[in-house]
Write a structure and sequence with these properties.
The protein is of the alpha/beta class. It has 8 helices and 19 strands. It has 3 domains: 85 residues, Roll (Ubiquitin-like (UB roll)), CATH 3.10.20.30; 94 residues, Beta Barrel (Elongation Factor Tu (Ef-tu), domain 3); 122 residues, Rossmann fold. The strands form 4 sheets. It has a 6-stranded antiparallel beta sheet with strand order 11-10-13-8-9-12. The protein has a 6-stranded parallel beta sheet with strand order 17-16-15-14-18-19, with helices on both faces. β15, α5 and β16 form a beta-alpha-beta unit. The protein binds flavin-adenine dinucleotide (FAD) and FE2/S2 (inorganic) cluster. The site of flavin-adenine dinucleotide has 31 residues, from β11, β12, α3 and α8.
């Protein structure tokens, strides 16, 4: 079956087992995407003709109104016929072409009981241009991928900084916590993703992060502050308890040094002595902030992204100025989880 892009002369073939997005990427056609799990909505396109189906039911990232308007999510959609789809191909992520490179774990520091800070060294002869907010894929055997956001800003190009949360039973993250991985060689691909700082806007920015969802926001924050760009920023960072606030001192320090940056930590299960904001991070934002004026960047667990996506527009946020980075598990892990769940039921 073939898929043609209605707003260009590009087309590609798709096999029944492949998602439309996978087929496009395999054909070297760079369509917008991020989570690849049906949550972030970045791969949304309009189906002009043809029929698709979703193997796992309608994805969470597609609202009823969008279905009625003919939108589909390409990372989950499988073709039942030839398709014509309206979606804008991007020549590359931002201005920089994505590439596959060897890298070495230069440093590895515990940030919290379940978060490691990884510094990757790239080959000295290679340039690696990225935009604040983008991520890389770490390539595992058989081409499987694990995505991690870049926490350092583009101007600090010595190493790529990652914040890696331990996933119990996780093929990539679990061994990092149990064995000494310093100096290990990794193959990475990047930069990837469209969750990037919008340099063409002057609107105040609301950054909402959950857990290691702080990573791409930190890249954006440091980019704006260290290049003395005149943007107002408010960061709401939600974690479970005090011990999870792994970048608290650094963020307090940044906020103390800039009139343009305010930082609000939010704990869902604080200790008795906590005097700051409590509850879910998106609820704390809704309690405190009139959203109309803001450009909103939200990154972190899929449940947090779903809550922001659903509630913020009802409180005045402009959906056209909301960007999401949903930290889903990799497509191969989600497929194995579903298979295991189906076998058990
Ligand atoms: C764009 C993007 C950016 C991201 N950025 C970050 C970041 O900056 N920091 C960060 O910490 N995370 C980030 N993530 C999330 C991160 O990619 C995942 O947590 C990571 O893929 C976990 O990899 P893993 O190999 O350790 O776990 P996996 O091996 O993928 O396992 C995931 C889960 O599936 C379970 N599982 C696997 N196989 C089975 C099976 N057969 N049956 C039942 N369960 C099974 C595992 O036990 C585990 O709980 C990001 C995700 C995306 C999409
Ligand atoms: S990439 Fe398809 S919903 Fe996120």
């Amino acid at each position: 079956m073939r898929v043609s892009l209605s707003n260009s002369d590009r087309s590609f073939s798709v096999a029944p087992r492949q998602s439309v997005l996978e087929a496009a990427l395999d054909a070297g056609i760079n369509l917008p995407h991020s989570c690849k799990g049906g949550n972030c909505g970045a791969c949304r396109g309009r189906l002009i003709s043809g029929e698709v189906h979703y193997a796992n039911g309608r994805p969470l990232g597609l609202a009823d109104s969008e279905v009625r308007e003919g939108f589909i999510l390409l990372c989950q959609a499988h073709a039942r016929s030839d398709l014509s789809v309206e979606i804008v191909e991007i020549s590359s992520a931002g201005n920089a072409a994505s590439k596959r490179l060897p890298s070495r774990i230069e440093r590895l520091e515990p940030l919290a009981h379940d978060v490691l800070q990884l510094f990757l060294r790239l080959p000295a002869a290679e340039s690696f241009d990225f935009q604040p907010g983008q991520y890389i894929d770490i390539i595992l055997p058989a081409g499987r991928r694990r995505s991690f956001s870049i926490a350092s800003p583009p101007h600090d190009s010595r190493f790529l900084e990652l914040h890696v949360r331990r996933v119990p039973g996780g093929e990539f993250t679990e061994p990092l916590f149990s064995a000494d991985a310093r100096s290990a060689l990794l193959t990475i691909e990047g930069p990837l993703g469209h969750f990037v700082y919008r340099s063409d806007s002057t609107a105040p920015m609301l950054l909402v992060g959950g857990g290691t969802g702080l990573a791409p926001l930190k890249s954006i924050l440091r980019h704006v502050l260290e290049n003395a760009l005149n943007r107002e920023m408010i960061l709401y960072w939600g974690v479970r308890s005090e011990e999870d606030l792994y970048a608290h001192a650094e963020l307090v320090d940044l906020a103390g040094r800039s009139m343009n940056f305010r930082y609000e930590p939010v704990l869902s299960e604080p200790g008795a002595g906590w005097t700051g904001a409590r509850g879910w991070v998106h609820d704390a934002v809704l309690r405190d902030i009139p959203l109309e004026a803001f450009e909103i960047y939200a990154s972190g667990p899929p449940a947090m992204i779903a809550a922001v996506r659903e509630t913020f527009p009802r409180h005045g946020a402009d959906p056209g100025r909301m960007l999401f980075d949903s930290f889903d598990y990799a497509p191969d892990s989600l497929a194995r989880q579903r298979k295991t769940a189906a076998n058990e039921s």
